[in-house]
Amino acid sequence: MEREGYLNIFSLVVIVGVVSLHMSRTEAAIGLPPDGKSLRRQYYKKLNICVNVEAYVKHQVKVYWSKDHSLTAKLVKLLYADCMVNGCDASILLDGPQTEKNAPQNAGLGAFIIIDKIKTVLEDRCGPGVVSCADILNLAARDALHLAGAPSYPVLLGRKDGLESKAAWVDLPSPSISWEAGLAYFQSKGLDVQDFATLLGAHTMGRTHCNYIWDRLYNFNNTGKPDPTMDKSLLDKLRQQCPKTVKKSQEQNQTVFLTPKYGPSYKFTNAYYTNVISHQAVLGVDQQILFNYDTNQLVLEYAGSFEQFRKEISLSMSRMGALKVLTGNKGEIRRNCHFTNKNNPYIK
After folding, report:
1. What are the binding residues?
2. Could you give the CA distance from residue 181 to residue 171 in angstroms, rounded to a whole number?
3. Which residues are annotated binding-site positions for substrate?
């Protein structure tokens, strides 16, 4: 049976290929990365150390999200920047001139203040040094996604916070990379092809800076021409927002929505995938996933079934949130997310 409404040239053989990809992913553990297997659902409740921790986090996120819907994109990006570099240990939150948050790739990260607000509440309601910053970040991202339209998936808990953070660790790739390089990066972190295609779908929300797409607009692969895979109407629109003659400092500050039609609403939708199909993806790596067989089939599936995308984003977020976590005697539970306890100026 052909996929209804999308590219009828794809036959039943192609659709079977998609199903097989799902089966291998489901059978492979529903697969948390190895370090994540020590995490537990309702960890704080079961240990009776903060029974209502998830309710406290959810309330705070709702309060701030109601004032600024862009909070969802900011929290998801912050979680990605943490987990994909040195594991989900909240090292992205540590202050210092040479820490991860000050790496060039992390320019423009936000939502730090929201994590601080939640941490302050939990230090008061649950007691000092009970709930880790790493768990707070994972819970807050989940709750913000849910408010935007994603499912409220269970977050496994019990992470400890890292003891150091180095800008030199940050290896986040350019958004202009090929699908081969993007997939290799995700696989190097312990994620798979479906995580790659699924987590990129978070680009249905948020903005990017003009300097990240300038090459696609004006000098693709040093040809002096635009990316030939970009739809002409999108090219013209983006060139108006990111003029070729703009000063570099202005170019870096100017931002555009990743899904121009729905961007201002910051809703979680599958519009990202329909944009990829119609060659209207803003970032280069997003358009690239149309050109690999496996990711192409996932693009078609998610564009045709929002519910399937909602289901799979839950699993991929859980898998990302379990990368290289610290548990047990590793790490610590920070009293302040900006400082390790040893360097915390507020602890006497």
Report:
1. 82, 85, 87, 89, 91, 100, 173, 203-204
2. 12
3. 173
| 115 has pLDDT over 80 | yes
pLDDT of residue 1: 28
Binding-site residues from annotation for Ca(2+): 82, 85, 87, 89, 91, 100, 204
Q: Do residues 91 and 85 lie in contact, with contact meaning Cβ atoms separated by under 8 Å?
A: yes
Cα-to-chain-centroid distance, residue 278: 23
**Do 325 and 35 form a contact (C-beta atoms < 8 A)?**
yes
User: Strand pairing partners for 326?
Assistant: 160
Contact 159, 87 (CB under 8 A): no
Binding residues for heme b, by number, are 203
Per the CB < 8 A criterion, the answer to whether 163 and 84 are in contact is no
DSSP H helical segments within 263-305, as ranges? 271-277, 284-288, 293-304
Biggest distance spanned by C-alpha atoms of the chain: 68
Enter the pTM of the model. 0.89
Task: Kindly report, residue by residue over 237-255, the tens digit of the pLDDT.
Answer: 999 999 988 655 555 678 9
Structure tokens at 346: 């507020």
